[in-house]
Amino acid sequence: MDLLDRYLAAVAALLPKAQREDIVAELRDLLLTRIEEKEEAKGAPLTDKEREAVLKDFGHPLAVAGRYGPQQSLIGPTVYPFYMFALKIAVAVAAAISVIPALASIVLGGDNPARLLANAAFDHFPSSALMLAGLVTLVAAGIERGWVPLTGLTEWKVSELPVPSKKKKGVFETRFNAVAEVVVTALFILWWTGLWKVDIASPMNVRHGLSLEPSAIWSALFWPILALAAVQLLGALVALLQTGRVRLRAVFELALGVAGMALTTVLWKSVPLFTVQPAGLPEAAKLQQVFDMGVHVVMLVSGITFACQIGAAAWRLYKGAR
């Protein structure tokens, strides 16, 4: 057995049985062509050492079998960009579901805030991130092998892509929005602190003698909500007076998004936020159920909104927007 046969036998041993003969025949023709070209250029038959050099230049049998054999990569180059995008989202979600409960516990007066944050960062986050990353990897591998349909990303049209806006938001429009935010936030602070006389603790009449009474959670969250409103007011003032400080505004938006997500989590766990009185009536129980369902929907929409705000602000900071 000459060197070529030994080389092809080593490659064949690493190939799937169903394709072995065809691939070996193709490799034999390719290698014989290379050897003949070398002999023609030399004008004489190649020695065993020269033939071995040709085979060595072609590649190790393991590498050649990998090129001609079945797919070896878990995720190919076509799916990889989508995989990385989904992986970044998964890590962000893992961070949110790990940190937000800790922040909520701190807001509610939990003991040892440093320990809560440490547990979130070094215990909950790694496990959540690994679990979500593994799930994303499995889905991407399934897409790569055709197990998971990908029609949503393959059947797309250029004509359906969004048209980029050529008009940038002007200074007047930016400041108008900032003024509106300042006014609304200032009025809320006046109302929340009682300087604008509206008695939020009194029962609110609903119908047929039924009324809504605020739960105790509102008293517990008085200062956190006031602090959140103050930060929002400060951010609106920055947007009004410093329109060019995009990154500074993004910092405020990021802080507001995180705080808003934490507040939403606390309120979600504290439902009912209002109780229908008198509670013993059947109609009151039914109305309470409907009201609580509506509160959950509002909290869910708020959570999604704050998550989008966090993502947008973080992206602007990451890209170094000016």
From TrEMBL:
One Pfam entry name: HAAS
Transmembrane segments: 82-108, 176-196, 216-241, 248-268, 297-318
Keyword Transmembrane: yes
Entry keyword Transmembrane helix: yes
Keywords, alphabetical: Membrane, Transmembrane, Transmembrane helix
Protein name stated in the entry: Uncharacterized protein
Source organism: Caulobacter radicis
Organism lineage: Bacteria, Pseudomonadati, Pseudomonadota, Alphaproteobacteria, Caulobacterales
